[in-house]
Design a protein that fits this description.
228 residues, 6 helices, two-stranded antiparallel ribbon, alpha/beta, elongated, 25% helix, 7-stranded parallel sheet
Length: 228
């Protein structure tokens, strides 16, 4: 099976309505720059001339791609995100998209290098993604960078994410859908955290768990909200 190519930026176009008639969609982005062009190295002349239809914030309209990445790099947060990918996990694209939204330092793929980028919605162009072929390689990197490895999964020794004091410098690690974290990652983690649930299901989707854990870090270290 071949891996889907990275999707292009969202574009406007007709969408089929329930009665079969095409339904107009709002046009994404902006057209060519009106009037005299602005001055600065971060402006992209092609975008100024043709318009900018990328999925970016308005503040980045008409910016060069490398200029956007450089600006994001100047203020990325201290946490990293990692996900194990032994069976081509389909959640990785969504995890990358969420990591971009919360401005994680990097996303780390442990295991298979290839991953389905469709769910990332092109945010992987702006988010640093690193590959580690083995758990041992990943753990050595984390320890070398002084990062606490924090597993997110349901184990007998897991403690609640809601009351745990997340360290500022850490990497949040998620297992792939189904198997969860491997024993090797569990053993390497300084703590394994679980997310409190109140319904009938035993677990939640890996991408959903990643979003909750990332936001917990943001609440603690950006907004200063104490756990508990």
């Amino acid at each position: 099976m071949t891996e889907p190519e990275t999707p292009s930026e969202p574009t406007a176009g007709p969408e089929a309505a329930p009665d079969g008639e095409p339904e107009a969609r709002a046009e994404v982005g902006v057209g060519p720059w009106p009037g005299e062009w602005p001055q600065g190295d971060h402006w992209d002349p092609d975008l100024l001339a043709d318009g900018d239809r990328r999925n970016v914030l308005d503040k980045y309209r008409y910016w060069k791609h490398e200029a956007i990445v450089a600006e994001l790099d100047s203020r990325r947060h201290n946490f990293h995100v990692a996900i194990e990918n032994w069976q081509h996990d389909m959640n990785i694209g969504t995890v990358v998209r969420t990591a971009n939204a919360f401005l994680a330092k990097e996303v780390h793929i442990i295991g298979r290098r290839r991953w389905n980028r469709r769910g990332a919605m092109v945010t992987d162009r702006y988010q640093h993604v690193r590959h580690h072929p083995t758990v041992e390689d990943f753990v050595a990197w984390a320890q070398g960078d002084g990062l606490a490895v924090i597993g997110i999964d349901i184990f007998p020794d897991s403690v609640p994410l809601e009351t745990y004091e997340l360290p500022r410098d850490c990497v949040l690690v998620f297992g792939q859908e189904g198997p969860g974290l491997t024993p090797e990652v569990h053993a390497a983690a300084v703590a394994t955290l679980s997310i409190e649930q109140f319904g009938s299901t035993r677990s939640i989707n890996a991408a959903s768990a990643a979003a909750i854990a990332m936001h917990a870090w943001i609440r603690r270290h950006v907004f200063g909200q104490l756990p508990g």
